[in-house]
Design a protein that fits this description.
Elements: H1 2-9, H2 11-47
Amino acid sequence: MKAIVDLFSTDYGLMSLGVIAFVIVMGWWFSRFFARKIAESERDARRGG
């Protein structure tokens, strides 16, 4: 229980939450970016260019 309290009430806990949230958002963004680029590349390859 103390770990949860520290996570939400201390500066290092809040910074950890910020880093965790940033990494999750960054992973989501990269997966969308790469999926879009792969689809774009496949579409260009089918067109022959």
